[in-house]
Specification:
There is one protein chain. This protein is mainly alpha-helical. It has 17 helices and 6 strands. It has a domain of 156 residues. Helices cover 58% and strands 4% of the residues. Strands 1-6 form a two-stranded parallel ribbon. Strands 2-5 form a two-stranded parallel sheet. Helix 13 runs antiparallel to helix 15. The protein is rod-shaped. The relative contact order is 0.14. InterPro entries: CDK5RAP3 (IPR008491).
């Protein structure tokens, strides 16, 4: 009597084996189920219109317990076919009663139900949960990726705006604005020319020191272009070469066509764009300069190199002037007419510009060295025994005066090596350079557009995964609810076989 109240605990994973070991079911029950499934498929083709039947047959694997409910419904719909002996003449009722009898033979229905319960608990429900978790993970990944792309977009936009700001353009019509900015060069050069007289003291100090130390032979050979420009200003190259003003100046026009934006700059940038550290190197070899009047000694050496030595914040576009096609046009004496490169101002001529920079660097190096020696040996040059016989101009110089000269020279070096001036100078002398510069800026802008497009695709992916997860959640709830019903039906059926003893299937759907 007491055994009747002792519960029977069965673990879900061991339920099929438990039924076989207790001789409730046979081990080879699958072939019988195949025959039953065929009969069910044939029977559901001829069913009466009923809401309960439609609900049972919708999206559900029909098992023995469903068949019992269908028979209960058919008792209502097929009541007219019942005879005096309580039997039904309806073929529908006969088919489903036959299916139930086949299920009950050897308790095949119990083996099938146990297998369905194990499959739902071990595979079906965990699989749906994994799909939902994967969708949620992808949504989080899309959020993270969108944030990264937004930062990338802002960084590229700031980089583009910063480059445009340094070049003094708005960036709306890049090539046109770059060309228009070249018209500001004469004004910039004029301002620099006004500061040339301030270099006179530094140049005079350097020449006097060289004359004292090396003799008169070096007096005229040192920094010739710098001395000429201090005295005469930013003249034409013709006047520097021939030491006389030309009768007429035929300044070469800028060979840059005013093309519409977008005609030549359509570029496929692909998916991988590397905007790493970029460096500008410009090389003018002396062999590129050819003058019709013969060989002229510029006093600057054989190799001419244009480079930006400001050391400050500069725009670096990775554009080689050799690739850009910058050429120094031939010039010469044509009856006192300055044409070609001879008509260019000394600041504007690539060759004389570099010669001027070299002279400045030479004076700067000298002043730095003298300042170091003066600070190490005393407050002025009078303390140096070797300068006692020097002219008074050298002897009266102090560390303060030399420092002032050095500051003046360094200011001029900074002005002429200004990154914006550097690019405008190269743009003026090369159509290809301005094209390459415009393309480089557009590459930066294209990264902004690419980031925006990728953000749109990422948002679409996030919406797709969200919709998939939203569709899977009702399916998961449905499977869990039906599995709970199936588990309770199995427990009740087993309990009947043990005279009503309580049956507990452990580790079942309740753990999901």
């Amino acid at each position: 009597m007491q055994d009747q109240f002792i519960p029977i605990d069965i673990h879900t994973n061991k339920l099929p084996d438990w039924l076989v070991s207790r001789r409730h079911c046979i081990r080879d029950w699958q072939p019988q189920v195949q025959l039953i499934r065929e009969k069910i498929n044939n029977a559901i083709q001829d069913m009466p219109v009923h809401e309960g039947i439609a609900r049972l047959l919708s999206g559900t694997y029909i098992n023995y317990f469903h068949c019992l409910k269908i028979i209960e419904i058919l008792k209502e719909t097929e009541a007219d076919s019942r005879n005096v002996f309580g039997r039904y003449g309806s073929q529908r009722m006969k088919d489903w009663q036959e299916i139930v009898r086949m299920y009950e033979k050897d308790n095949v229905y119990l083996s099938e139900a146990a297998q369905m319960l194990c499959r739902n608990v071990q595979y079906e429900v965990p699989s749906i949960k994994k799909q939902i978790a994967k969708c949620e993970q992808m949504q989080s990944e899309c959020d993270r990726r969108e944030t990264e792309l937004k930062k990338q977009e802002n960084s590229a936009r700031n980089d583009f705006n910063s480059s445009c700001q340094k070049l003094g353009i708005s960036g709306k019509s890049i090539r046109k604005e770059l060309v228009e900015r070249c018209h500001e060069l004469p004004k910039i050069y004029s301002g620099m020319a006004q500061a040339l007289p301030s270099l006179d003291q530094a140049a005079k100090f350097y020449r006097a020191f060289m004359h004292f130390m090396c003799g008169s032979d070096h007096k005229r050979d040192s920094i010739p272009l710098l001395l000429f420009m201090i005295e005469n200003g930013n003249t034409t190259t013709y006047e520097w070469i021939h030491k006389e003003k030309p009768l007429r100046v035929e300044e070469p026009r800028m060979n840059i066509a005013d093309e519409e934006e977008g005609k030549k700059d359509d570029i496929d940038f692909g998916d991988d764009i590397d905007f790493g550290d970029i460096k500008v190197e410009t090389d003018y070899s002396g062999e590129d300069v050819k003058l019709e009047t013969g060989d002229i000694d510029w006093g600057t050496g054989d190799d001419i190199l244009i480079e930006n030595t400001s050391g400050g914040d500069e725009i670096d576009f990775n554009i080689s002037l050799e690739e850009s096609g910058i050429e120094v046009q031939g010039g010469g004496l044509e009856g006192g007419v300055a044409s070609g490169s001879d008509a260019l101002a000394l600041f504007d001529n690539p060759v004389t510009r570099i010669s001027f920079v070299n002279d400045l660097l030479e004076v700067e190096s000298f002043l730095k060295m003298r300042l170091h020696e003066m600070k190490s040996g005393g407050n002025d040059l009078l303390s140096l025994a070797q300068l006692q016989n020097a002219e008074s101009f050298l002897q009266v110089q102090t560390t303060d005066s030399v420092q002032k000269m050095l500051t003046t020279v360094q200011t001029m070096i900074t002005k002429i090596n200004d990154p914006t001036l550097y690019h405008l100078h190269n743009i003026r002398h090369s159509p290809r350079y301005v094209d390459n510069l415009a393309v480089t800026l557009k590459q930066k802008l294209s990264l902004v557009d690419k980031s925006i497009a990728l953000q749109g695709r990422v948002r679409e992916k996030r919406v797709e995964h969200g919709e998939l997860a939203r569709d899977l959640r009702p399916k998961l709830d449905l499977v869990i609810s039906k599995t709970k019903v199936l588990q309770s039906q199995i427990e009740e059926d087993i309990s009947k076989k043990y005279k009503g003893r309580p049956v507990n299937i452990m580790g079942g759907v309740n753990t999901l």
